[in-house]
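Minutes, methods subgroup
Present: GH (chair), OT, SY

1. OT presented the first of two proteins processed in the latest run. Sequence and structure tokens recorded below as shown on screen.
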Amino acid sequence: MSLESPAVARSRRDNTNTHKRRERKRNVSMGVGSHKRSQGEAAFTQTSHAPPLPALLRPQFQVFGEENLNAIDRRLRRGEAERMEEKKIQERCARVRERRNAESQRNIEMIQKRTARHASAAGLVEERRLRAEFRQLCRW
């Protein structure tokens, strides 16, 4: 029987298992998908299209078929259409922003003029009140 407490024994056993798991992870070889990706193929294809060749022996240029060229052309046209749509949206936003700014500027000017008129009218009212008060004081 061991002289260690059950907690110490459990801790030692857990550490050993963790160490074993790490070793297993280190010893795992490169997966099939990784090999296929490094050879330029999709990861989960069932069969290889070409025999595995080292990179230096593989042809350096790819030849695109008609289907691939059509797909590339469609993607480019779609990208151009999306850019044009984005440009139209930006132009609309700019026009609306400009219109709102002009409208808010007009509102600001209108409020300033109204405030000036009200201040002027209030000044006239105050001036009349003071003159009336002065006239009343002068009568004494």
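2. SY then presented the second protein from the same run.
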Amino acid sequence: MSSSSQVAESWISAFCSLVGHEYFAEVSEDFVEDDFNLTGLQSQVPMYKEALEMILDVEPEDDYSDDEDEDEDEDLDDDDEDMRDAAAYRRQERRHMRMASDLSVMESSAEMLYGLIHQRYITSRQGIQQMAEKYEAGHFGACPRVYCGQAKV
């Protein structure tokens, strides 16, 4: 199969396949997109909107518009190209630093939000069914005690 025909892995699938996350159920995107299932989570998660966009693999909206850059450039005289270049460089550097720090906060917020969504999902009918299938498959291991007879945990 060629690499162009392969479908990119979703954030949810990638998150659940990480080491230490094997007990998470893959929550369906329909469940995540339903506003009722997200009630009250906005106040608990920093950068909620961005975290939700990350979970759903939606391209984030750019809050910092290029129009502001153009307005700043128009304020400078045409003769001051060096100043304009330096200002553009500083602006680009600030944006890069902000994006790097925001990305780590967004990732941790997305992980927290997914955990809270997962908590609600596994109490739903689909979630209980998915967790029961994992239990039946022995996904959670077996009791190490001798008299348990390798009972599923």
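Chair's summary of item 2: The CA atoms of residues 17 and 24 lie 9 Å apart.
Next meeting: continue with the remaining queue.
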